[in-house]
Amino acid sequence: MPRIRTTRTKKPPEGYEDIESILDDYAKKMRDAENESHEGKRKAESLWPIMRISHTRSRYIYELYYKREAITKELYDWLLKEGYADANLIAKWKKTGYEKLCCLRCIQTKDMNYQGSTCICRVPKAQVRSGTVVECVHCGKCLVSLFLVCD
């Protein structure tokens, strides 16, 4: 028989009280985004607000630990274990060239229209035709090119 999960979890580490209100705000925003009406939206478009909130929450925790050094390693590990942040996305942010990555789906080549290519939100703005507005299918990030590109 599988082990039955109970609601009892390990007590949060010291310092959690300082960021608890902000994480609760993210949880409220996430609930609102999940309960939002999906009528008139494409299938992928209904997930964009959820992905944006998840991204900003993960980015907040990443910056608290790596940039501002405001939380301890113990608290950071606990937040990742409890699912407050996406550990795989944070691992990519630590690598060069991936600092502004919006989601992991944008670097997977199998989900693209042309096999082996990259997502449009990963292409530098200077390489997109002038005056075009391109929207990422996975995360909804808009890319507007204002530069003139020579063919």
From TrEMBL:
Q: Which InterPro entries match?
A: BUD31 (IPR001748)
Would I find Metal-binding among this entry's keywords? no
UniProt keyword annotation of GTP-binding present: no
Q: Name one Pfam family in it.
A: BUD31
Gene Ontology CC annotations of this record? spliceosomal complex
Main localisation: nucleus
Protein name, per record: G10 protein
Instruction: Cite a single GO BP annotation.
Output: mRNA splicing, via spliceosome
The coiled-coil segments of this chain are 16-43
The protein's location, in the record's own words, is: Nucleus
Q: Which family does it belong to?
A: Belongs to the BUD31 (G10) family.
Q: Which UniProt keywords apply?
A: Coiled coil, Nucleus
